Amino acid sequence: MGGGEDVSPLFPNAATRAAVTAEEPRLPSAYYEQSVPVPTGWDDDVACGHLLFGPPYEEMAAHARSRGWLVEELAGQHLHQLVDPEATRIRAHTAAVGLSVGLGTRHGVEASR
Known about the structure:
This protein is mostly helical. About 40% of the residues lie in helices and about 5% in strands. It has helices at about 15-25, 30-35, 60-65, 80-85, 85-100, and strands at about 50, 70-75. It has a two-stranded parallel ribbon. The longest helix has 16 residues, at about 85-100. The two termini are about 30 Å apart. Mean pLDDT is about 85; it is low at about 105-113.
């Protein structure tokens, strides 16, 4: 994970960190710096959502809202799905249910929480 900084606090325990690190692909930093072209309108007819864990991701959530996506918020941190998998599962499920019933600004209902 990244350029040598201590990421231990991002994990709930040493065993989880070891498991994630063992499965983590080794990619050059340039991989993370590239942009991937996305076709215009790819999400026009697809229900989309964003699960916001906290302030570092506010810009991405604002972008999602501007596109009419459902944005669910769960106060957390980077890798929060490892820290609190049950709360993450519940909030992701809530978002999926909301998307299945047509929530989101595209459908005339402001669903951001």
